[in-house]
Amino acid sequence: MTIVRSQIRPALVALAVLAVITGGIYPFLVTGLAQALFPYQANGSIILGKDGQPVGSALIGQQFDDPKYFWGRPSATAPAPYTAFNPDTLTGSSGSNYGPLNDALIGPNGSIQQRIRALHAADPTNTMPIPVDLVTASASGLDPHISPAAAEYQVARVARARGIAIARIRALVAQHTAGRTFGILGEPRVNVLELNLELNTLT
Amino acid sequence: MTINGFLQIALYLLMLVALVKPLGWYMARVYEGQPAGLNRLLAPLERLLYRLFGIQPDAEMSWTHYLAAMLLFNALGVGLLYALQRLQGWLPLNPRGFAAVTPDSALNTATSFVTNTNWQGYSGEATMSYLTQMLGMNVQNFLSAATGMALLIALIRGIARRSTTTIGNFWVDLTRSVLYILLPLALLVALVEVQQGAIQTVADYRAVNVLQPQHYAQARTDIAGKTITDTVQVTQQWLPMGPVASQVAIKHIGTNGGGFFNANAAHPYESPTPLTDFVLVLAETCIAAALTYTFGIMVGDTRQGWAILAAMLIVLVAFQCVAYWAEASGNPHIAAMGVDTLASNSNPGGNMEGKEVRFGIARSALFATATTATSTGAVDAMHDSFTPLGGMVLLIMMQFSETILGGVGSGLYGMLIFVIVAVFIAGLMVGRTPEYLGKKIEVYEMKMASLVVLIMPIIVLGCTALAVSTQAGTTNTQPAAHGFSEVLYAFSSMGNNNGSAFAGLGANTLFYNLVGSFAMLVSRFWLAIPTLAIAGSLARKKVVPAGPGTLATHTPLFVALLIGVVVLVGALTFIPALALGPIVEHLLMLQ
Fold it and tell me: How far is A167 from chain B (nearest CA, A)?
């Protein structure tokens, strides 16, 4: 017991002092540096509209199901898709977590079939195969991106709904497509919210 | 599978191996108390800390003394984190006014973060105040990692020293790990994170107007007991905020893995770009890999470290390729619906359920295998939605008992125990007394090593059996074989201090919170006791000069033997359980 007793002071003081360093000084130092060097990113990459009001975050997706907008990934957040946080239900980011054989995923009334039906209903003449990311829920439920193939699948529908030439819409998609980082990392992707905001400025 | 996918794996491997020597050398200098660059800046602070602690930094400890200090420190850590969660409603830096966490959930989370597991039954953005995240989670991210590193250094000293009773000073090893290794690396990674788009603020959550308003139906029961369906309009989106980047950086560097947000590193505010994903995978593996070189320097033969690292990386890369193949092959049921699952430069393809577009299949598979191999447990994709074989790889990586890189410190001490077992088996084959680096491996060491090897499977399989045979353990699982996989995954994760989950399992229940706490505590601290006992016993021994019958432990032959022992012990123990879960599910999927 003398061994243990001799360690009580170092244990108490070490926990207190190291907690102040790693849980106080360190996060506030990073906050200070982040706010000074990268204020746009540190505060959530907020996109401002023409009137200076925030219209969303470049990193957090929003829900779209109007044919005149590009749709993002299906989202499994509760109580509504793309809920990054809900103060009443206290819910936030989440995937579906369905296993690969779960009926709720692949069944006749599963999330994938529902999404396929919605896409077909919005664009009955489109017979292209649907890219997989457009029917599967993202991990965060907030994925701001779709694949270039998923955007291409929707180009004709958006053009028709807005009465704008397909070529113009396609060019806009290309503008909002990011390639792999350094040509290697990750996947090519289209930012859905930024693209849709830009669509609304077309006449 | 695409060439690009393999390039991403190759690039990762290249960067990791390039970091091993410089980082490993630096850590050896730090632990041996030699100048290593940062000490000009930090040495005065270090000396001040020792004065405050009331310790003599050069007074060394026996293994029991070291153990007592470590256990006491970690017990107090559990108390602090528990108290913060229970009191957060009255404490500052709580802009959302989150109430106290329930006692069982708070206990589970406290043990989870102190044991370097970071299993999370709660949703971060909807439960924890900024103060709890910073002074609770963030602190244990540093301290549990530093504890693991200290224990490893003690074991290495036991192997390297001769005829002595002491194995170092816990407070010194702990302090140096934090000041010289974890803090500088965390600062660096945090700034990269923010530059790429991770958030870092203590301001309140903010609401923004959405471009296309939505509505959804919500059922409620009125006073008369009738069910009424309300239509709720959604015109705004709440964006959670917080000191995220600082916490994400250390949760990977310290192989902790507990996310600031529920979706962990899949959340765009935690890992906004493919580059941050790459950096986080590198961060969670670099210290564990580099410690093998530190080990080599401290025992005076760097070839020994490289041999162990080779065994680790061969297994890691082999399983990364299997996971990548499984996820790229995708789910045949989805392809059968006329969905395009073929990968190309415009389509990620494969099994995209539970994955983010910016990461795609290759990065998600790479991240998932690294996070389960290293005991990090962070996720950038939902493991529960992996294909059966992809998910099985993740189960196996955890069931390797943290030997494939493993947690910082705990990984290499776990692997060194398996090295001792491998040396012993080789000794049995040729009929000679086994020895490792000049130390005879005798009955006492083997008893302790057997304890380490056996405790984990007993905990994992025992708790799984308990859960699946009770109502409390099975109420919140998905149907059929997948439900069994979820339970097996939960206890493989908690029983190996990993922390990732098949998150479809509703685990924030009294049963999982309590049984899980037990599993995490045993697998962390009960394993530390025999490990330190071996350190103490080896330190006392004389060195036997190597003879013609000595097994060389730096050769490809030994690497193969070590892999064989790790795979056989892991595989033999868990194959029956895996057959009931992922293997059955895979066969059903192909039907």
Answer: 18
Cβ B351 vs Cβ B327: under 8 Å: yes
List CB contacts (< 8 A) between B274 and chain A. Answer: 180-181, 185-187
Residues of B in contact with A74 (CB under 8 A): none
Residue written as tokens 């044919």?
Answer: A67
**Per-residue pLDDT tens over the stretch A15-41:** 999 999 999 999 999 999 999 999 999
Chain A residues 96-135 with a CB less than 8 Å from chain B = 96-103, 105-106, 112-113, 116, 129-133, 135
Q: Is the ipTM of this complex over 0.85?
A: yes
Residues in chain B with CB shorter than 8 Å from the CB of A150 are 347
Which residues, other chains included, contact A80 with Cβ-Cβ below 8 Å and sequence gap of 6+? A63, A86, B214, B216, B232, B234
Is the CA virtual torsion A92, A93, A98, A99 positive or negative? negative
Q: Give the Cβ contact number of residue B35 at 10 Å.
A: 10
Q: What is the CA radius of gyration of chain B?
A: 24
Q: Which residues in A lie closer than 8 A to residue B191 (C-beta atoms)?
A: 30, 33-34, 37
CB contact under 8 A, A149 and B123: no
β B206-221/B227-239 pair status: antiparallel
Are the Cβ atoms of A92 and B123 closer than 8 angstroms?
Answer: yes
End-to-end CA distance of chain B: 23
- The H-or-E segment that residue B52 falls in is helix B39-53
Output DSSP code: residue B79: H
Residue pLDDT, tens place only, A65-102:
999 999 999 999 999 999 999 999 999 999 999 999 99
Cite the DSSP H helix spans in B254-408.
274-298, 302-329, 332-335, 360-373, 388-399
Provide the 8-state DSSP code for B264. Answer: G
With contact defined as beta carbons under 8 Å apart, do A62 and A125 qualify? no
Partner A contacted by B72 (CB < 8 A)? yes
Half-sphere exposure of A3 (CA within 13 A, CB side): 13
Cβ B530 vs Cβ B448: under 8 Å:
yes
Residues of chain B with pLDDT under 50: none
Percent over 70 (pLDDT), chain B: 100
- β pairing state of A130-131 and B339-340: parallel
Q: How far apart are CA A169 and CA A167, in angstroms?
A: 5
Residue of A nearest to B144 (CA): A15
Q: Please state, in angstroms and rounded to a whole number, the distance separating the CA atoms of residues A156 and A170.
A: 9
* B355 lies within 8 A of chain A by CB: yes
- Compute the distance between CA of residue B64 and CA of residue B167 in angstroms, rounded to an integer: 10
Contact residues on chain A for B210, CB-CB shorter than 8 A: 56, 62-63
Question: How buried is residue B420: exposed, middle or buried, by Cβ count under 10 Å (0-12/13-18/19+)?
Answer: buried
| B386: Cα within 13 Å, side-chain hemisphere | 35
CB–CB of A9 and B53 under 8 A? Answer: yes
pTM: 0.96
